[in-house]
Input
Amino acid sequence: MTINCLQSLKPPSDRRIAIHITLPAQRSIRSGHPWLFDNAITKQSHNGNPGDLAILYDHNRKFLAIGIYDPFSPIRVRLLQHRKPAQIDRQWFLSKIETAAKRRKPLATTGTNGYRLVHGENDGLPGLVADFYAEALVVKIYTPAWVPHLANIVPAMTEALPSKRIVLRMSRSCCARPEFLYGLEDGQSLLGPPLETTVIFKENGLLFEADLVKGQKTGFFLDQRENRARVEKLSSGKNVLNVFSYTGGFTLYAARGGASSVTSLDISRTAIAGLKRNIKLNLSNERIANCQYEYITEDAFRAMEQLARTDRKYGMVIIDPPAFAKKREEVTDALKAYSKLVTLGLRLLRKGGVLVMASCSARVKPDEFFRMVFTTAENGGRRLIETERSEHALDHPISFPEGAYLKCLFARG
Output
């Protein structure tokens, strides 16, 4: 299938939706916030389909912003342009994407050709991300409101960053509205033949495979690149435990950093198989070839308990769990789960060893997370000495508070 398939998509309506909003929402939009929630609407000219353009007005009927409309989402309008009107066309999208590509240029000097090209709201395209893997581009949409605009967005992306292949990924909520997808499917190739194998890309000189069609996110966890590089600098001579290892990003960096051994723990057999293939891709590196590897396919909490009962100790423990809180009401339970992981991690950490504890739950704020780690350690009679804390990498910029999700603590204990 070629990019021509996008030309048959139904375009957004020429009739703009006029929306008036509450005073608090007006203040939020004037500050540049990218979302308008359904409960902030006081008056609306008419209903629309996903992707129709909506114009927001203040109480004096003055223009505030324009964005894409989604009648099925609490985020009713995702905003594209603030303060002054604009024609939302291919040229507008090209300008946004070229600005995003320019921001990522420093990565070209690091032996990296796998990175995030567009980071949704934070690059001015809310609800859409685009990740680049060597010569392949993955476009992921989180709302069907983007479907009518793909005919403009995808050519703009290939112009800003030439690609031989483009794969479309869609969130579950997006796939739940097939009547507005016009035949598009998750994992479909928009440019180039259907992808039947993984793609090999480079990150800081290491080789990794990515499953662009069925892999988590868009095929790899690109956001942890800089934290993986930090681990490499700290792993020399250590035996390392990598919890929630997925396909081995932290494992490979620790091995290249001179770790004597790395134990990788993940519940997914598919992920562990991918990890083993990634090791094979990098065996030309002497340190990676000489490192000893152990693989545990098990629930992380249960496996860590078992390791602790056998009095296993590690010089570095890396814990990079999935998002435990996707809603605000889940935060309390998420913090309890994180705390249990810290407790287990410290039971397995040799005195003076390095604890690497990460969270990708946006609902858990950095101050809550870091405080929880230190409180848990103190309650367990362990004193942690912080060496570094990190947040977002260059290709995952943050432009509004809710966009900040990643945080990672490096500490000796």
User: Anything to note?
Assistant: The mean pLDDT is 95. DSSP finds eleven helices and 20 strands in the chain. The longest strand covers residues 349-359.
